[in-house]
Amino acid sequence: MGELKIEQLSKYFGNTKALDNININIKKNEFIAILGPSGCGKTTLLRSVAGFLEPTGGLIKFQGESFFENGRSLPVEERQLGMVFQHFALWPHMTVKQHVEYPLKSSQNKKRFDSVRRKEMMDHALKLVELDQFEKRYPHELSGGQKQRVALARAIVAEPRMLLMDEPLSALDAHLKQIMVHEIKRIHRLTRATTLYVTHDQSEAMALADRIIVMNKGKIEQFDTPHNLYHYPNTPFVANFVSKALLVDGNWEGEQFRPANSENTTWAGKGIADYFKRNQMYPVRPEELSIVPAQTNEKATGLRGTIKDKQFLGRETRYIVYALGKELEIISNQMQDGEVDQEVFVAKR
């Protein structure tokens, strides 16, 4: 039995179904990302677990205790959860130390921990996020990354039963985001707190999570490891949203796929989900395709197409090739594959 158990969870806002029969089992100490586009229900799910929203129906249990069941909801303050929000939510008049100390001043935590223990916990949290030398500083004296670390320390200081994070890195620039991904992983390894992490950023979810819940229109499309989601998607949405795969139409002949309007081209079907086979399509990722200029190799086989765009990206080059009546994205690490308006053959690696 999982540490966090969610069964048949639903949430309506008027006539809109924000959560549609959600079923999840999460293990102790797991880092779970909830991934999906805006409006897919990921924040609604997180806020239902936190207790900020009351579900319409279903069950939420954590460590055997009912958070929500039969219409009864456990109060937020009794759930003993840590929360990190999209915006840092720091008070300008309070120092770093005062922010981290704040949760320990609640009546509940004063009962749980004596003053000596609370001091030890605050010092430990500051050291954990490497802010013990900044405890007297105010928010305006901190960088964006340091502010986020304050928010993290405040969330974990009272040793919460579970840590909930709602797009905590969306306000940071790309460089700071990369640094904070490393920091969050380091802190999770040290605290081993069961964590739910909401994001719309695929690379962020893949880098952080043990498993990822991919949501779309209030439903779970797939709940799996980052590796399986990327290489073995179960639905067109997961294929496109997680790995930016293109769905190619054609025909399945046993375990071989023949793209539409191609004569001598077949692709192996190992690991392709049954959904795609039933619907006569093949999900192919940009890095799985390669191109060969048509005039340089008369024996080349593949899908005949024309390069419509070429973008140098440093380590690789992005091509847009018109073939099969649509635009195919191809990522190549070969500089001289072709030029715009050149005819090429597209093959699967």
Automatic annotation (TrEMBL):
Pfam families: ABC_tran, TOBE_2. Gene3D superfamilies: P-loop containing nucleotide triphosphate hydrolases. The lineage of its organism: Bacteria, Bacillati, Bacillota, Bacilli, Lactobacillales. The keyword Translocase applies. InterPro entries: AAA+_ATPase, ABC_SmlMolc_Importer, ABC_transporter-like_ATP-bd, ABC_transporter-like_CS, Mo/tungstate-bd_C_term_dom, P-loop_NTPase, Transp-assoc_OB_typ2. Its EC number is 7.6.2.9. GO terms for molecular function: ABC-type quaternary ammonium compound transporting activity; ATP binding; ATP hydrolysis activity. The keyword Lipoprotein does not apply. This is ABC-type quaternary amine transporter. GO terms for cellular component: ATP-binding cassette (ABC) transporter complex. Signal peptide: none annotated. SUPFAM superfamilies: MOP-like (SSF50331), P-loop containing nucleoside triphosphate hydrolases (SSF52540). Keywords: ATP-binding, Nucleotide-binding, Translocase, Transport. Residues 4-242 form the ABC transporter domain.
